[in-house]
Amino acid sequence: LGATVYNDSTENLFLKLGITASATSFTVKMVPASYFEVPFDYRGRIDGIWAADAAGAARITELTP
């Protein structure tokens, strides 16, 4: 089990492994065109919030056995 996230937008994405991501409570700050691999075997909620109105998307891929 795992996942990847690619910030395919024009704004920073604050991503949190847990609930209620914010600009002051996050796991990783993803700048535009950045990539993040969720730690292997993480089983929990993942929240994200944009720094501003974003043109684009967070591209998420779930990895399963």
Assembly type: single chain
The rounded Rg comes to 11 Å
Overall pLDDT metric: 94
**Fraction of residues in helix:** under 10%
Number of helices: 0
Secondary structural class = mainly beta
Which word captures the global form? globular
* Major sheet size, sense and barrel closure: 3 strands, antiparallel
In total, how many beta strands? 6
- Low-confidence segments, ≥5 residues, pLDDT <50? none
Tell me the β content: over 45%
- What is the CA-CA span between the terminal residues? 6 Å
Strand order of the largest sheet: 4-1-6
Give the SSE order as H and E letters: EEEEEE
Task: Please describe what this structure looks like.
This protein has strands at 2-8, 13-17, 28-30, 35-38, 46-50, 57-63. The strands form two sheets. It has a three-stranded antiparallel β-sheet, with no helix packed on it. It has a three-stranded antiparallel β-sheet with strand order 3-2-5, with no helix packed on it. It is mainly β.
Give the structure's gist in a few sentences.
By secondary structure, the chain is mainly β. Helix content is 0%, strand content 48%.
Layout of helices and strands:
Blueprint: E1 2-8, E2 13-17, E3 28-30, E4 35-38, E5 46-50, E6 57-63
Antiparallel strand pairs: 1-4, 1-6, 2-3, 2-5
List keywords for this structure.
single chain; 65 residues; mainly beta; three-stranded antiparallel β-sheet; 6 strands; 48% strand; globular
